[in-house]
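Slide 14.
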Amino acid sequence: MTTPQELAPQLQHLLAALSRQGDQHLTEVGTDLQQTAFLLAEAIEKLGNSFMGIHESVTAQRVLIASLAENAVLPPALEAGLEALQRQSQVHVDAAITGLQFQDMTNQLIGRIVGHVTSLHTVLAAIGNTAAALPVDGDDAAAMALLASVNRMLDEKAAVLHGASRKAVAQTHMECGDIELF
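Slide 15: predicted structure.
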């Protein structure tokens, strides 16, 4: 049978190790999320610039074709076909640019994840502080009071998390309609 003098150091070690390991993992997660957000922003900017370049090229082609059509007699079928291709190209470019709005929703999700990571850092820090403050001299009443305090804090954090976990992610940029995820 384990005595309180043997149990307290084991509990203290467990809580301290949990706090350290969790904090290390969360630090890595936070760093990876920041890199992901940065890479996403760069990729979206490059895609946006590329699509705008395509749009400008299509517009220049349209002007050139219009100039050719003014100076030459084009069969009506050819002229109609060129106009249809121009419209089709414009529709595709517009759709691709509009599709880039997922960056806004992704940034909202990343922001929510960072908030959860920060909250979990707080919880793990409290557990680490509890481990450091846990009496190892066998004072069961003080240990139980400390553990009850940590349990209340964990219950409060769980209630906040439960209330925040079902928030929708909404598209707020590019003015092409409202999209909600979740």
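Speaker note: DSSP finds four helices and two strands in the chain.
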